UniProtKB/TrEMBL annotation, chains A, B:
SMART domains: Iso_dh
Cofactor: Mg(2+); Mn(2+)
Pathway membership, UniProt: Amino-acid biosynthesis; L-leucine biosynthesis; L-leucine from 3-methyl-2-oxobutanoate: step 3/4
Protein name per Swiss-Prot or TrEMBL: 3-isopropylmalate dehydrogenase
Function, in words: Catalyzes the oxidation of 3-carboxy-2-hydroxy-4-methylpentanoate (3-isopropylmalate) to 3-carboxy-4-methyl-2-oxopentanoate. The product decarboxylates to 4-methyl-2 oxopentanoate.
The enzyme's E.C. designation: 1.1.1.85
NCBIfam families associated with the record: leuB
PROSITE patterns listed in its UniProt record: IDH_IMDH
Subunit structure: Homodimer.
Catalytic activity: (2R,3S)-3-isopropylmalate + NAD(+) = 4-methyl-2-oxopentanoate + CO2 + NADH
Amino acid sequence: KKRYNIALLPGDGIGPEVISVAKNVLQKAGSLEGLEFDFQEMPVGGAALDLVGVPMPEETFTAAKQSDAILLGAIGGYKWDKNEKHLRPEMALFYLRRDLKVFANLRPATVLPQLVDASTLKKEVAEGVDMMIVRELTGGIYFGEPRGIKINENGEEVGISTEIYAAHEIDRIARVAFETARKRRGKLCSVDKANVLDASILWRKRVTALASEYPDVELSHMYVDNAAMQLIRDPKQFDTIVTNNIFGDILSDEASMITGSIGMLPSASLGESGPGLFEPIHGSAPDIAGQDKANPLATILSAAMLLKYGLGEEKAAKRIEDAVVDALNKGFRTGDIYSPGNKLVGCKEMGEEVLKSV
Amino acid sequence: KKRYNIALLPGDGIGPEVISVAKNVLQKAGSLEGLEFDFQEMPVGGAALDLVGVPMPEETFTAAKQSDAILLGAIGGYKWDKNEKHLRPEMALFYLRRDLKVFANLRPATVLPQLVDASTLKKEVAEGVDMMIVRELTGGIYFGEPRGIKINENGEEVGISTEIYAAHEIDRIARVAFETARKRRGKLCSVDKANVLDASILWRKRVTALASEYPDVELSHMYVDNAAMQLIRDPKQFDTIVTNNIFGDILSDEASMITGSIGMLPSASLGESGPGLFEPIHGSAPDIAGQDKANPLATILSAAMLLKYGLGEEKAAKRIEDAVVDALNKGFRTGDIYSPGNKLVGCKEMGEEVLKSV
Ligand SMILES: CC(C)[C@H](C(=O)O)[C@@H](O)C(=O)O
Ligand SMILES: CC(C)[C@H](C(=O)O)[C@@H](O)C(=O)O
């Protein structure tokens, strides 16, 4: 029997509910494929702030770093919104990404046929959307130096953030994107603002140079403002998108909303080696926390990504993906994806229905 | 009789067609209100590159600078796409904005009842959308230093762009936004990424500090990733949005596509003093240039903004706005906004129909 160490970081708001459900699903799918998991649950974000005064305790990081893969719930909440920057729950995500060196963030945006009505886009525009956004996660303007609020020569405050990418940072994320596109429909669109930003000019140059190593992938380039439009005009034109940290933040959220079911979308953050970080893309939803109303499917599907991308256990991953489709086909819906004619269930019951089909 | 000098910069692609139509409309609306215009037409962008080898000739800038207001068509085209950065048509926009110091870019996104079907959003989501995006236009990552492609200590290329805002730059755009919101529905949403970027932390601090001077305006803040989602989920929640140069670039294009009629949307760029710059937000559309297919309404409505915001001639502006609605009510449509049951017309004919109603 294969054994894996899984770090569970439930975090805040609906995090604990969805993690508890996803853990059960992961365990069953694994055991049916001969896998055993040792789970270690650790506090992170606001929960850690309340417990030990910092958003990312040393022990949590050590447990995460030593695991084979990390499943995270959600981070943040009104309660800590007025905290100073370094004492905000979100900083935990920041440190985790940076210190685990998980530079490649994979964010699928898929419209399932069962849920096409949940989109605010017209049915004919939304149906069949199936894209993967590959976002650079440990560089760019999120981490670039210099940064801060300084006083200039006129005694005036100036806010500074630096968008900076070295060639090797662009190359490694571009390779992940080319490999991803190769396993999908073979189309890669690199999004930048090379008509204005020097950081984007280098980005485009490096991505273009790599294309010759992937002759089976069709590469195109698009400016970020145009991409923001095209995602609404005709999202089906996209297969795989690769872009920098801040554009990826914006476009992946836009794309997720196009699917209409942000409660359904998982993500994976991967490095060159070491454990990957898997989490739903939705937030901590403090307004519905603790009420058994959350949609656990994004976290369950993150567990599937954990199996597939984190551990290379594709069969177990497939079991989970199929089980989710099964539960949807049977008409089970949490409130966020409910439409008349279906069966409204809570977080736990949705988990049980998925579990039955695993 | 009042006389005004208007600089006309037709530019590239469909630019000349739409400018020629808008000029006639402007002239008629003005003369009915006792205004006379002296037009001076000058080359810019690709047209200027072909003529004199630079995208923004000295003479063009001088004419623009000395005018009372500038009406611009569109800039760019495949032909110059491989040019080096400083010889690209788009640089003309860059220099114009910077040297005219037009820091406030007003971009309305409105869904007209006649055109609600043109949106890819569901009718109930799109109808009634009426927002104004106030984008900072002469600062931030578009102009910040240091920038460029450098070699780092490992001999590796590094691309650098700097997002930088001084307090007074934030204050002056925020004031324009508060004033704009005050004249609209009194709601202002400031969009930033203050959970990550120091430049955004200063942005939020300054905007918040100004709010006490505008007690009649309801101020809120939103992260840019969330804003990209909310524009799709429920665009009607927005009245006035204020944001930095790059976020404004992305979000205003997204908002324009939500209306489904990018061929309808004008823009105004204003400074503290000196002439304003007025232009449609659509591009030069080289694929349909010279075929009398372009929609001139965005440029005609830009002429209305020129009258209203540039010259303070509200009555003449209103004449143009009403005439556009009139032509639409009569069923005239260019190809981009055509739907069955209406009358398909070309650029010139649409112009004539508007002219009749002025
Ligand atoms: C919470 C925030 C720092 C984070 C980001 O901007 O990366 C989030 O928006 C995300 O996309 O994971
Ligand atoms: C052409 C380009 C430089 C420009 C910009 O990014 O500002 C355009 O996208 C715009 O929004 O006016």
